[in-house]
UniProtKB/TrEMBL annotation:
Entries under PANTHER family matching the protein: PHOSPHOENOLPYRUVATE DIKINASE-RELATED, PYRUVATE, PHOSPHATE DIKINASE 1, CHLOROPLASTIC
Gene of this entry: ppdK
Annotated GO MF terms: pyruvate, phosphate dikinase activity
Residue ranges annotated for the PEP-utilising enzyme mobile domain, each copy included: 419-499
Similarity section: Belongs to the PEP-utilizing enzyme family.
Protein name, per record: Pyruvate, phosphate dikinase
Species name: Micromonospora zamorensis
EC supergroup of this enzyme: transferase
UniProt keyword annotations, A-Z: ATP-binding, Kinase, Magnesium, Metal-binding, Nucleotide-binding, Pyruvate, Transferase
Domain PEP-utilising enzyme C-terminal: 533-881
Domain Pyruvate phosphate dikinase AMP/ATP-binding: 61-285, 290-342
Domain of life of the organism encoding this protein: Bacteria
Upper classification of the organism: Bacteria, Bacillati, Actinomycetota, Actinomycetes, Micromonosporales
EC number: 2.7.9.1
Matches recorded under InterPro entries: ATP_grasp_subdomain_1, PEP-util_enz_mobile_dom, PEP_util_AS, PEP_util_C, Phosphohistidine_dom_sf, PPDK_AMP/ATP-bd, Pyruvate_phosphate_dikinase, Pyrv/PenolPyrv_kinase-like_dom
């Protein structure tokens, strides 16, 4: 079994096996770029190790062989006392998990080789001892779980003994002393001396990287990002190059385009005389990459050349890490870079213009989740709000919330339902919980590539980083800015696009992309790269997609908005929403009716109101199909709750008031009480039990359609019966409805379809029979999931889904994204058997899944005609329906 690959043996398509970092290092090596030599231990080795706790057979020997050939290539031996080869041991999973797993640098240093390193570095003692103390620190913390603060504390002590705040002021002797202190700390916590054998260091470091796959923060990150738990990480063993050898050395990160806006240009940060970790941690402030041109023009030009080459090769935005060791440039990493949602669209458009990709590929490169993000509202700023600070717009969005300073507090307050802004000097992987809980993240240090920025972008959370006018005092729970003090509990607003920070709560307005969808921004006539890119890609998606997209809407206003967003009809109009407000009383009368006359009177009063509702909706959806669902929920939902009513009656009786009416109501509520109302008297069952109810609704629909037609419009009503489980139910409703329709429409030319929801498993399994009585099916995947899994849709998410997610029983709630294997199978069966019984049967979906990207792909695959979703999801569904085709 081959567990170890030299960089020259891999390529970018081997990410499963070599991880992202290893695969791309191999790719760069094969492109002839200056990559420090090294090798990659596969994810398979990691998985085998994690399964058994032992290195798999053969791994040790393969590492030995690759190490030997590395030593031959470099003409140095690992940890050689005179001229040591040093290596870094780096994690690298298939999907990037920034800062979540471990890295150990400078492996191969010990009490002897530190002297050799110094000699090789031209007698640079300071550098050698600094490298050694970094090794003990990283190795101790990562491999042996020595508390990191102890090392930091010792470092602080060394600095204060020297009377400085700056690491760079510590000289070789100070650092030698620090190494001694670190070794003592190591001994105290591990009960053993710091290992002096280079190969032992290497093996332990490799093991620690394997194990870091299961570190708590890594598990949490994967859950958040929906990264499968069983991939494992690869381990890269890479020849060390040093950015901290003096002023002609340094390290940096760069993007080939702006990862926030997509704009072309040079985006990166550089830090002279430093190691890579210093940049990512945002500990010292970096300078813009452009300044490297002054410092080292040769390396700068070479770097720009390599960046252009990488973009052309990957045909995408790349991010890179590099180090300059005494004027020689080394590439330490590249990958197709993370980007904001806006940048994803803009860059896809640019790459089409540049001829690097076609529009189908552009459609691949963006997704519905990104589009949804671009539809977030923005701050509405007037003179009243002046920014108090400006940092870097690290992850876009507009967030207001209560200031908190610790991850724990963020979690606590979010649990109370508060919107919070986590304010930190800089974040580190331990802040992950707080970042998840927060609405937004504000840091006073760190650039676009700092931990806060990278993680927030990944999570789609608003983040402003490096707002250095802000003085954060975590212990005192406050920050000061522009002469003002902001305490925990105060409200601030942050704009992740502009990087501006405001005190107080700033009101919000629709985003540009929403304005475009609303029709108030014309992409042909405005100079806005994002809107133009969205327009272009959406147009392409619309041209490609086979699925139609409808909306779920119950009001004229929603219908109109959804239509502007591109809805091609209504897939679900829930009529029960029309029974609320001041109509509740009429519904009450209907429910309480004792004699047929009373019931008819109540229905007659409701009829014109319903008709007016439908007329408005048909008008807004003129020419497009409108699926109106007959009333679905149990009627007692329209009555006051039992307990409250009982108390009211008791109190009124006590006071000697006349309670005859309330008593009647109470009796009705008692009569209608159900232990399990979701499986009780609702949907078609109501229509069969309460005379005249469905008839009234059918009449209202038909009359509204006729009124529309008379007014010159085109109404296309589709009457939908909910909760059908047997064809006989549908046939009964249908017979009555057809009579009314025939009577109402006469020769008006109006055509009314009658169909059913498929939301009870039995309906899916007898779809062939049901199709005989239905002109269309609409899958109610909310109830189909509820009844398919037996999960109460109103209770389970908060009650126990967290545990199911934790155990990996499913990776995402089946109410959010369709369960392809189970509920999806019911959909597939019903679609096939329904169409077999009635060719041309119209099929759609109107559960929440209709607006979920992954589910849209599934509905495309099973051959539905349309999806229907809430107005705001309509553009997302259009985009994903297009993506499902290309
Ligand atoms: C469904 O069950 O999926 C559906 C659309 O109906 P409702 O959500 O109203 O029960
Ligand atoms: Mg339903």
């Amino acid at each position: 079994h081959k567990y170890v690959y030299d960089f020259s043996e891999g390529n970018k398509d081997l990410k499963d096996l070599l991880g992202g970092k290893g695969a791309n290092l191999a790719e760069m090596t094969n492109l002839g770029l200056p990559v420090p030599p090294g090798f990659t231990i596969t994810t398979e080795a990691c998985k085998a190790y994690l399964a058994t706790g032992q290195q798999p057979d053969g791994l040790a020997g393969q590492i030995e062989a690759h190490l030997e050939s590395l030593e031959r290539a470099m003409g140095k031996r690992l940890g050689d006392p005179q001229d040591p080869l040093l290596v870094s041991v780096r994690s690298g999973a298939k999907f990037s998990m920034p800062g979540m797993m471990e890295t150990v640098l400078n492996v191969g240093l010990n009490d002897q080789s530190v002297v050799g390193l110094s000699a090789q570095a031209g007698g640079n003692d300071r550098f050698a001892w600094d490298s050694y103390r970094r090794l003990i620190q990283m190795f101790g913390k990562t491999v042996c779980e020595v508390p990191g603060e102890e090392f930091e504390h010792a470092l602080d002590e060394a600095k204060s003994a020297k009377g400085t705040h700056n690491d760079l002021d510590l000289d070789a002797d100070d650092l030698r002393g620090l190494v001694d202190a670190y070794k003592k700390i190591f001994l105290k916590h591990t009960g053993r001396e710091f290992p002096q054998q280079p190969r032992e260091q290497l093996d332990l470091a490799i093991r620690a990287v394997f194990e870091s796959w299961n570190a708590e923060r890594a598990i949490l990150y994967r859950r958040q990002e929906r990264i499968p738990t069983d991939l494992g990480t690869a381990v890269n063993v890479v020849t060390m190059v040093f950015g901290n050898l003096g002023p002609d050395s340094g390290t940096g990160v760069a993007f080939t385009r702006d990862p926030a806006s997509g704009a072309q240009g040079i985006y990166g940060d550089y830090l002279a005389n430093a190691q890579g970790e210093d940049v990512v941690a945002g500990i010292r402030n970096t300078v813009p990459l452009q300044e490297l041109e002054q410092l080292d023009k040769t390396s700068y030009d070479q770097l720009l050349g390599i960046m252009a080459r990488l973009e052309e090769h990957y045909k995408d935005l790349c991010d890179i890490e590099f180090t300059i060791e005494r004027g020689k440039l080394w590439m330490l990493q590249t990958r197709v870079g993370k980007r904001t949602a806006a940048a994803a669209f803009v860059i896809a458009g640019q790459l089409v213009d540049e001829g690097l990709i076609d529009l189908d590929e552009a459609l691949h490169r963006v997704n519905g989740a990104q589009l949804a993000q671009l539809m977030f509202p923005r701050f509405q700023l007037d003179h009243e709000f002046q920014p108090v600070a400006k940092g870097i717009g690290a992850s876009p969005g507009a967030a207001s919330g209560t200031v908190v300073f610790t991850s724990a507090r963020a979690v606590e307050m979010a649990a109370e339902g508060k919107s919070v802004i986590l304010v930190r000097r800089e974040t580190n992987p331990d802040d992950l919980n707080g970042m998840i809980a927060a609405q937004g993240i504000l840091t006073s240090r760190g650039g676009k590539t700092s931990h806060a920025a990278v993680v927030a972008r990944g999570m789609g959370k608003t983040c402003v980083s490096g707002a250095d006018e802000i003085e954060v005092n975590v212990p005192a729970k406050r920050f000061t800015v522009a002469g003002q003090t902001v305490n925990e509990g105060d409200v601030v607003s942050i704009d992740g696009t502009t990087g501006k920070v405001y005190l107080g709560e700033v009101p919000v307005m629709p985003s540009e992309v929403v304005q475009y969808f609303e029709g108030s921004l014309d992409p042909e006539h405005i100079d806005n790269a994002l809107v133009r890119a969205v327009h272009r890609i959406m147009t392409h998606a619309d041209g490609k997609r086979r699925l139609a997209v409808r909306t779920n809407a119950d009001t004229g206003a929603d219908a109109a908005r959804a239509r502007r967003f591109g809805a091609e009809g209504i897939g679900l109009c829930r009529t029960e929403h029309m029974f609320l407000g001041d109509r509740r009383e009429l519904v009450e009368r209907l429910i309480l009716a004792r004699a047929p006359g009373e019931r008819e009177a109540a229905l007659e009063a409701l009829l014109p109101l319903q008709r007016a509702d439908f007329e408005e909706i048909f008008r807004e959806m003129d020419g497009l199909p409108v699926t109106v669902r007959l009333i679905d929920p149990p009627l007692h939902e329209f009555l006051p709750p039992l307990e409250q009513l009982a108390v009211n009656v008791a109190v009124a009786q006590e006071r000697g008031e006349d309670v005859a009416k309330e008593e009647a109501l109470l009796a009705a509520v008692r009569r209608m009480h159900e232990e399990n109302p979701m499986l009780g008297l609702r949907g078609v069952r109501l229509g069969l039990v309460i005379p005249g109810l469905f008839a009234m609704q059918v009449r209202a629909i038909a009359e509204a359609a006729v009124a529309c037609a008379r007014g010159g419009g085109v109404a296309k009503p589709e009457i939908m019966v909910p909760l059908v489980g047997a064809v006989q139910e549908l046939e009964t409703v249908r017979a009555e409805a057809e009579k009314i329709i025939a009577e109402v429409v006469g020769d008006s030319g109006v055509e009314v379809l009658i169909g059913t929801m498929i939301e009870v498993p039995r309906a899916a399994l007898t779809a062939g029979q049901i199709a005989e009585a239905a002109e269309f099916f609409s899958f109610g995947t909310n109830d189909l999931t509820q009844m398919g899994w037996g999960f109460s849709r109103d209770d389970v998410e908060g009650a126990f889904f967290w545990r199911y997610l934790e155990l990996g029983i499913f990776g995402i709630s089946p109410f959010e994204s369709i369960d392809r294997d189970g509920v999806g199978r019911l959909v597939r069966i019903a679609a096939e058997e329904g169409r077999a019984a009635r060719p041309g049967l119209k099929l759609g979906v109107c559960g929440e899944h209709g607006g979920d990207p992954d589910s849209v792909h599934f509905f495309h695959e099973v051959g539905l005609d349309y999806v229907s979703c809430s107005p705001f999801r309509v553009p997302v569904a259009r985009l994903e329906a297009g993506r499902a085709v290309v």
